[in-house]
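Example record used in the benchmark description.
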Amino acid sequence: AVETLGAVRIIETDKTGTLTQNKINAVKVITADGEEFEIEGDGYQPQGIFFDKNKKIVEAGRKPELLHLLKAGILASNATIGINNNEILGDTTEGALLVAGLRANLNISELKEGEKRIYEIPFSSVRKMMSVVVQIDGTSDYFLYAKGAPEVILPKCLASTPGVEAGEADARRMAASGLRPLALAFKKVSKNEVKKALEENILPE
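Model output (structure tokens):
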């Protein structure tokens, strides 16, 4: 690989701030209902602006589907944001999800305290996804959150075939424009499914 790299003469690339700032940011979000948003912000600072597809500023707090998606990104991440919001501790992609949540005024500490993680299957090159199970504080309700490659996550969702195809088309469109697409999903799971996961190391799909 090093020998091959040595033969490279020209590299032209950019990845949402990776080269220009050495920071990755979530800059576009498409929800399950087809709404599309863009996010602008500086580095890892928690201040940011959300725009709809018509370039109009929107209040993220008034968009439930958007908030659910950003919440899933936070709960399915292991990264943390360092002091003064100037560095990511952990995976930078997960850090970008945390920053996107902060820009929507989500409280990361409150979310993780209110929905405590009880089980995790880490990302692997085989599964191409990472899954966690959380328990809603003070209840017997459990939720599964997952993030990973769109071609793996989308077919597992309880969406109609056209919905899955639309999501895959959106992912291809993002990739073609130089972005790195990532799918996020969540579902409620039963106590028996959680018990099976803990005992047999098998999560529901």
